[in-house]
Amino acid sequence: MLEIDSTRKVDQVRLSAVEQVRFIYAPSNVSSKGFRTRLRLSDGKTITFGNLSWRSLTDIDRDDARYHAFVTALSAAIVRANPKARFLAGKPYLLWLALALAGGGAMIMLTFFSLRAFEQGATAAAGLGVVLAAASFWQVWPMIRLNRPRDLASGEVPDDLVPGRPPQS
Prior knowledge:
The relative contact order is 0.18. This protein has helices at 64-81, 93-119, 123-146, and strands at 2-5, 10-13, 18-25, 35-41, 46-50, 52-54, 60-62, 86-89, 150-152. It is built from three helices and nine strands. Helix content is 41%, strand content 24%. It has a five-stranded mixed sheet with strand order 5-4-3-8-9. Strands 1-2 form a two-stranded antiparallel sheet. A two-stranded antiparallel ribbon has the order 6-7. The chain is elongated, with a radius of gyration of 20 Å. By secondary structure, the chain is α+β, with helices and mostly antiparallel strands.
């Protein structure tokens, strides 16, 4: 059993009811490296939790080591309770493809905008386009790269989507 305390109520979920475990990169603001684990149950409900704790709108606590330890132990328990549970990494394919196309399209448009601005002598506008392209690449590229859809082995916990593995000695 998994006990979930959402501060409003406490639920218990049978681990044998977990059909799918999906690991995703989901930053919640410009500075956070947010990762989430989503469990899909046999009744269609989902449970999502991550490595970030929000104390307020601006105060975020990132606890990768405890998140990794919890997800690793939970994944092993799910495999024992339901060996048929699927383990997936990244976004569903169509969502990932839409993100990749939109991100790539935005980069092409910003590049074209910057080149045209340089041609016309509008260096301030061109500089703004370059800055926006760099900021967009910095934010969007990890979402595309890390959320590439892929199947995982039963019980596998991917280090690129579940940070905090203790160093091997």
